[in-house]
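A reminder before we start the practical. When you read a complex entry, don't treat the lines as separate problems. The point of joint prediction is that each chain is placed relative to the others, so the output describes one connected object in space. Small molecules and nucleic acid strands, if listed, are placed in the same frame. In the example below there are two entries. Take a minute to note the order of the lines before looking further.
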Amino acid sequence: MFPERLSEVQIAVQHALDQAVARLPAGDLRDAIGYAAQGGKRLRAFLVLESAALFGISQAQALPAAAAVEALHAYSLVHDDMPCMDDDDLRRGQPTVHVKWDEATAVLAGDALQTLAFELCCDPTLGPAERRVALVTALAQASGAAGMVYGQALDIAAETAAAPLTLDEITRLQAGKTGALISFAAEAGAILAGADPAPLAAYARALGLAFQIADDILDVEGDAALVGKQVGKDAQAGKATFVSHLGLEGAKSRAAALIDEAETALAPYGAKAQNLRDAARFVISRDK
Amino acid sequence: MFPERLSEVQIAVQHALDQAVARLPAGDLRDAIGYAAQGGKRLRAFLVLESAALFGISQAQALPAAAAVEALHAYSLVHDDMPCMDDDDLRRGQPTVHVKWDEATAVLAGDALQTLAFELCCDPTLGPAERRVALVTALAQASGAAGMVYGQALDIAAETAAAPLTLDEITRLQAGKTGALISFAAEAGAILAGADPAPLAAYARALGLAFQIADDILDVEGDAALVGKQVGKDAQAGKATFVSHLGLEGAKSRAAALIDEAETALAPYGAKAQNLRDAARFVISRDK
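Here is the predicted structure of the whole assembly.
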């Protein structure tokens, strides 16, 4: 069952992150890093562990990669929440790092979380050095100025653009901002196994886009108390989203079609991919 | 001759960085990354290439690691210069990234430069995967929350501390903020060769500390036009430095003693280490 499996992942990855943070020198910086690494759905960690399981790689072996992708994700949230970026005071229902500490601590904690992500990808537990180097490379490509950070830059630029983004532009933005790291997570198992990541890449592309559409829907229909951050921000800011382009029902049917596409991509893995199929369904039915 | 050798390094590493930046998607983000990756002494790149040469590793082979350490260094400068950190408007004689663009671009350009550094450490040119993984691990340990970022956090905390830092505290701060990355650079050659990095570590420890003392001296005696950034900031802020603790002459003789120590550490490498010896002398005689 997917919710139970996700809970297991949450516990395992939190433990791995807590252990990594505990090795750092004590102080505000470590506290802020540990705080930022708490909570979240851990969908990306789940994708790492489940894609690894497809190739017979145990959770214990793949865990550092799962922790790495969550550390990377946490860094992006800490920086994105800063006043000069999305300016959010609340994240996962808690004050953001720059609110609880200050902006300098947010910059540094985010920086250190990114570093930690790459360090975790080098953990010998993950297997042969060739595979770990491939993992570091893939994470760098997914998260850097051609991936996640590129998407974030497009998002920031959109705020001051003369015209609202087109659907194509939003899709490209999403492919970077959230899609690239979701794709990395889903392909990580194949990378660790030295297998062809193509079917997982197709799954992740559809899943990532559906995930972003669901996020846009949540910003319209969601309950802030459940979502854990402000809702209604997009419409308030006059921001072009999948919902503003497709309408609420159009967005929902597009997301559903993408989930079908994601499931189809998993066909080569047969029954072993059931948890990944369940995750795809979850992405468009979640309330937070 | 050291100045000529440093010029060669500057050209080679700039070319490598320019090539890496050219592969990124066009836009403000790429422009800001390219801008931040320009100029500088390239002392860290020099240390990588010269330590590699001790073990017969060519400049062509070690160049991605030299570019990596400079990308990492550039990221740290972009973030350190931000208003919530050291708040500097000028760097290497040019407007800082957040002045020329904006704070969001500075956050993102710094983030992407860090990512690029880790990606460069995975370049197949560098050699066997085991060595590249060791390099990524060493860079992460030097630059993260137990290394450079830790030192930066101590530096920020010192600004609001009740009492000026003691000499021990300044030394610990420096070991993180500038020392860790200098040590990484000097040890990189041994890491790439699979050799014992201990003599280079001892050299780098002394060199890094002398470098910081020289920086503190430049803040008192330097010419802003040559240094390329504001001078006199430390005294103005009532900041404890090696100069405020040791006096100007005391600081100079401490730096000179450290350079002797650095040279002694290079004894095992004999004549091959002449460029590294010259670099140590340069560090305390530089005017920028």
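Discuss with your neighbour: The domain at 2-285 of chain B is CATH 1.10.600.10 (Farnesyl Diphosphate Synthase). What might explain this?
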